[in-house]
Amino acid sequence: MRRRVLGQGPSNDGSRRVLGLLVLAALTVITLDSRAGSDSPLDPLRSAVGAVIGPAESATAAVTRPFADAISAMQTNKSLRSDVATLSAENSRLRGEVSTGPLDRQRLAELDGLTRTTEETGYSLVAARVVAIGPVQSFTRSVTIDAGTSSGITKNMTVLNNDGLVGRVVQVTSSTATVLLIADTESVVGARLGTNREIGFLRGRGAIADSGRLDLELVDNAVVPSAGDVVVTWGSENGVPYVAGIPIGRVESVTSSPRQSSRIAVIEPFADFSALDVVGVVVPRGTTGDRPVLSPGGITPGGAR
Amino acid sequence: MTALRNAALVAVVGVAIVFQAVVLRYVSVDGVVANLALVLVVVVAISRGSQFAAAFGFVAGLMLDLAPPADHVAGRWALALILVGYLAGKVRQDARASPLAAVAVVGAMSFVGTSVFALSGVVLSDGALPVDLTLRVIAISVLWDVMLAPLLVPVLLRLVDRLDGDTTTSPALMPALRGN
Q1: Per-residue model confidence as pLDDT tens digits over B48-87
Q2: Which of A133, B23, B39, B92 lies 20 to 30 Å (CA to CA) from residue A59?
Q3: Can you tell me whether residue A151 is helix, strand or coil?
Q4: Residue in B closest to A70 by C-alpha
Q5: Do A15 and B51 meet the contact criterion of CB atoms below 8 Å apart?
Q6: A and B: number of Cβ contacts within 8 A
Q7: How far apart are CA A160 and CA A278, in angstroms?
Q8: Under DSSP, is residue A231 helix (H, G, I), strand (E, B) or coil?
Q9: Model confidence, pTM
Q10: Residue B148: Cβ within 10 Å count
């Protein structure tokens, strides 16, 4: 009864005309957005959609998190196991937490780690949680976090977690922000080798699974990074978009092809982009907002352990 | 009434987008999740035909392009979903005829949509991956959509048909909306 048979002929023509118009509209949007660079005319629209979808994502994440925790606690994924094994070998403190503690204690440890990070680096942090992850079929690696301008977050701030550098803020609404992960192909980070202070540029490969590696291209061709070298951020003026001295990852291997003049070091990132939860956003000192700011000396580090 | 029904459809897309970004990430395969917005556009095409579905694909795609975690050039999903809506509408009679055909249409459209999106990325050099990785992402994405189609299509089809129903059904429309 609901089925309506479309007449052939004129309606077919009309439908084709509509298709043409819509494709034209889409191409216009693409042109507007890609030509404008950093100051897109679509930004107001983006903020408007973000202002509605962002809080909805935060709310949905809050409701569904307990169920997801139950699932992830039971997960026997092979890659997850090997990740846990590697991490626990690296970090005996975390090992105890992972194998015995419930998930909330892990989160506490992550927050605690963030507090310690502020002590070590001298940066002030706002803690936030990842509420949504962009699907890989959009070929972009980005996540939504549940803190925005009301917590003092603005565009181009550094985002890190307990393990190392995560990414930078690219979009922000009043209560949420979008973070571009360093694993994204569009992401370029100025990086420095920990041992010999050599600088280079770090690019993402866009994949987050086991192959979630980063490529480091060194400025000086003569330098051969050795496997196991730690890579940290090199930092830029005023800490925009990346502040200096945040650990990123470790050199896994070095490749050089005769065709390319430069050497590429493959970096294994410290942060696990497929299991992001609590992250910290680096904010200028003295920032005030609707959530606490962890700053050096501001919060005492976790008790005896 | 038509405006209200269209607004309801847009709200359903919003729910689908939030759901795929927040909930489905826990079951993602290498970060790839089912594209619920795309499945919804196919269902709307089966229910209402090419013309409406192409317009609906534009709106749904633009929302996907602008909703928070997205950071690609806006309009790319819009372009992909316009074509998905249009093509799926062309074969709607067959897709209505049998559930198996509907699943096949979802699979084919998932392939078309994700491929068009990936190609637009190559053309604009916006977040393009190497070919082998791209094909892998497309394959996983199609598998996801085909896997969920037998569960999603009947439910969504009933919902969309209901929203399309006669104008006196506004009390009946509310539970359908709330159920989603």
Answers
A1: 888 889 999 999 999 988 888 888 888 899 999 999 999 9
A2: B39
A3: helix
A4: B26
A5: yes
A6: 201
A7: 9
A8: strand
A9: 0.75
A10: 18
Amino acid at A158: T
Which element (helix H / strand E) includes B6? helix B2-22
* Closest-CA distance of chain A to residue B21, Å: 5
CA distance A119 to chain B (A): 30
Instruction: Give whole-number Cα distances, A299 to A114, A153, A158, in Å.
Output: 11, 20, 20
Considering only CB atoms, B124 lies closest to which of A25, A34, A53, namely A34
Contact B74, A46 (CB under 8 A): yes
E strands along A99-245, which residues?
124-133, 142-145, 158-160, 165-172, 177-181, 188-193, 199-204, 214-218, 230-233
Residue type, B87: L
Q: Retrieve residue B165's tokens.
A: 């129903």
DSSP code per residue over A169-210: EEEE-SS-EEEEETTSTT-EEEEEETTT--EEEEEE-S--ST
| CA separation for the pair B160, B43 (Å, rounded) | 8
Q: What is the radius of gyration, based on Cα positions, of chain A?
A: 22
The Cα B82–Cα B51 span in angstroms is 10
> Residues 6 or more apart from A24 whose CB is under 8 A from it?
none
The ipTM of this complex is 0.75
